[in-house]
Amino acid sequence: MPPLPSMPPPAAAKPAVNAIGLGKTDYKGLESTLCNGCGHDAISASIIEACYEYGIQPEKLIKLSGIGCSSKSPAYFLNRSHAFNTLHGRMPSVATGALMANHLVNAVAVSGDGDTGSIGLSQFKNVVRRNVEMVYIIENNGVRPDQGTVLGDRRPGSGVEAPARPERDAAD
Ligand code: SF4
User: Fold this and answer.
1) pLDDT surpasses 60 at 70
2) pLDDT level of residue 164 (50, 70, 90 thresholds)
3) Of 88, 68, 69, 78, which Cα lies nearest the Cα of 135?
4) pLDDT in tens, 39-51
5) From residue 131, how far is each of 92, 96, 97, 102 by CA, in Å?
6) How deeply is 2 buried, as exposed, middle or buried, from its count of CB atoms within 10 A (0-12, 13-18, 19+)?
7) Whose CA is nearest to atom 3 of ligand 1?
8) Above 60 in pLDDT, residue 105?
9) Mean pLDDT, to the nearest integer, of 71-93?
10) Complete domains list, the chain, with CATH
11) What is the pLDDT of residue 153?
12) Is the distance from the beta carbon of residue 43 to the nearest atom of ligand 1 less than 6 Å?
């Protein structure tokens, strides 16, 4: 019986790339140092996926954030992009300035419930009022009342009890 013809070696699989020729790893960031299972990492993974799928050029994107666990997360996606980690609650004004100075970049901002809804509420209202063109993601880990600047969150029945502060109550 004649020998069977040998099969040609399988062609090496080409790495998957998007419309601008980049692979998923081109959109990754540093290894996350957040707690295992933290939801912020799931959001970072979705940002990587979306930027890959839409063929966003990483160098034409700026990442902005304030302070807090969520605001650390831009380190964990889009390593090749520009980044600015600002003061607590002050990211919107930095984003406004950055986008006024450079109209050619897309902006992705990440902020927490405290960074946006407590210490940064005034800045957040103004960035909405000015309709600054950016993707603004608020990641809520539910610790906003702990920042102590929104006492309304600590009303009886709100689910969060205020710590005993007799000197404040005496002054009320
Ligand atoms: S938001 Fe909570 S789970 Fe996530 S890193 Fe911070 S402390 Fe850990």
Assistant:
1) yes
2) low
3) 78
4) 999 999 999 999 9
5) 11, 10, 13, 16
6) exposed
7) 38
8) yes
9) 97
10) 38-141 (3.40.50.970)
11) 46
12) no
| Alpha helices for 56-150 (secondary structure H) | 69-72, 91-101, 113-117, 121-129
Does 34 sit in the ligand 1 pocket, CB within 6 Å? yes
Q: Which residues contact 114 (CB under 8 A, 6 or more apart)?
A: 68, 143, 144, 146, 147
How far is it, in rounded angstroms, from Cα 116 to Cα 137?
A: 10
Whose alpha carbon is nearest atom 5 of ligand 1? 34
Tokens of 143: 């610790």
The residues near 82 (Cβ < 8 Å, ≥ 6 apart) are 59, 61, 62, 63, 105
Taking the C-alpha atoms of residue 74 and residue 66, their distance in angstroms, rounded to an integer, is 10
Residue of 31, 32, 35 best suited for mutating to test ligand 1, as the one with most atoms within 8 Å of CB: 35
Closest CA to 110 of 133, 80, 147, 83: 83
| pLDDT single digits (tens) 112-155 | 999 999 999 999 999 999 999 999 999 998 776 555 444 444 44
For the CA of 68, the closest atom of ligand 1 is 6
Does residue 156 carry a pLDDT above 60?
A: no
Contact 162, 154 (CB under 8 A): yes
